[in-house]
Design goal:
Radius of gyration: 29 Å
Shape: elongated
Number of strands: 16
Largest sheet: 8 strands, mixed
Strand order of the largest sheet: 1-5-6-11-10-9-7-8
CATH superfamily of the largest domain: Bira Bifunctional Protein, Domain 2
CATH class of the largest domain: Alpha Beta
Strand content: 15-25%
Number of domains: 2
CATH architecture of the largest domain: 2-Layer Sandwich
Length: 432
Amino acid sequence: MSAFRTVRGMRDFLPEEAKLMKFIESKARRTAQLYGYKEIITPVVESYELLAAKAGEEIRSRMYAFKDLGDRKVALRPEFTASVARLIATTLRNEPKPLRLFCVGSLYRYDEPQQGRFREFWQSNYELMGSNKPEADAEIVMLTDSLMKSVGLKNCVFKMGHVGVLRGVLSHEKLEDKVQNEVMQLMDKKQYDDALRLAESAGASEKCIVTIQKLVELKGGDVFETVEKAKEYVRGYKRAVDAVMNLCEILKLVSETGEKIDITVEAGFARGLEYYTGMIFEVYAPETPIALGGGGRYDRLIELFGGEPTPAVGVAHGIDRIMLAMQRQKTTLRTEEEKTIMIIPIKEKLKREALKISRTLRDADIPVEVEVMGRKVTKALEDADRRETSYAIIIGEKELKEDAVVIRNLKKREQRVVKIENIIETIKNNKL
RNA sequence: GCCGAGGUGAGGUAGCUUGGUAGCCUACGGGCCUGUGGAGCCCGGCGCCCGGGUUCAAAUCCCGGCUUCGGCCCCA
């Protein structure tokens, strides 16, 4: 055996898996079309500075970064957002708004592999830029719901929140942005006690601490009741109240579509990425404890990359994770199996005829395989059967003299002699 | 980066405790079978994760590494 294998964290997709992945990708692409998102393709390799610009220390330290032969410092993209932001800040800066962009592809992070996490992974990514309206946020949530349903996933749950709630409370206390970020990060890690202690030592009031505590505990149940309670808790913190109202508006829009979407609101929900400024959410499938997708609003991002201030909301879906969730739910792909044909020349000298006929069939858009192992008919038919081929076309001298071949239906085990010029018609019209 | 459990032909496994010829099933290639199979029989190729150590002798015991699967961290 050769000692070669895939590098840690990288994997092969064998036909079955490749098919599943391409299926999800096609659904993601279709969803993009249905919602009016234009697909763009950006490079896997970008300048290190671009990718590091906005990424936190954590992501930066896990980038595949290296110098190319021209001594440029580059890295493999760990996410799409930087590339898209680069485009919006430069080439696409004068595009009419709203601007809806979609991309799908592989990303790279030097993490320790574990359930649903690999060093090379695939995402579909949707960004809606130019609108600060709640309907834009709602669209991103709906779109995610559409995608999950279109691949056949059942019972997905959305976890939603709004970074403005906690931030509103913290900033009211005049805590520095940096401290706020740290507190938010601790909250994201669910280290609530540490978060509170940090806020307290930075000068947050007793009232603030109590408020945050109550917010953290506030989750689940009826969405609108939760929102009402949150509004009560943050009374007096104007920006926090605004945030709750905004979240409420988005939730209303989503729920009023009539589509059944399972949503849980967590008032103290924080997502790690520092650039979120508004609504945030993650999607889960019940069998899988990891987020299948996540996103939210980031109104500052484009200006961080040197563009015009542009409100934006977006989402990324982990294709690998969706695959995992589908496998756990035993989702069956609804794809049509195409008929396949095996061409078997009986004699060595008939193989030219086999290739010729195969070409004719392919030109007529019929998938064909030619027996290339030099097998005898018996073995060749066995092989065709094992591959669940629909038809075998057997080319023999006897029939060829009459410009004909034998077409055998392998499922029915019936066969008939057919003129070469009639092969296409016979197969296309299921005449056997 | 840290922690835990594992690694025997391509896949699934036996052997490991108690060191001594690596066995089985499936899959793969071929023959029996010079034009009709899905059966059977027979033959063949392919293996102890890697590197050290202990020993007359290591798949087996010891150490280190790699790697797989999970957990932490982070995230999709």
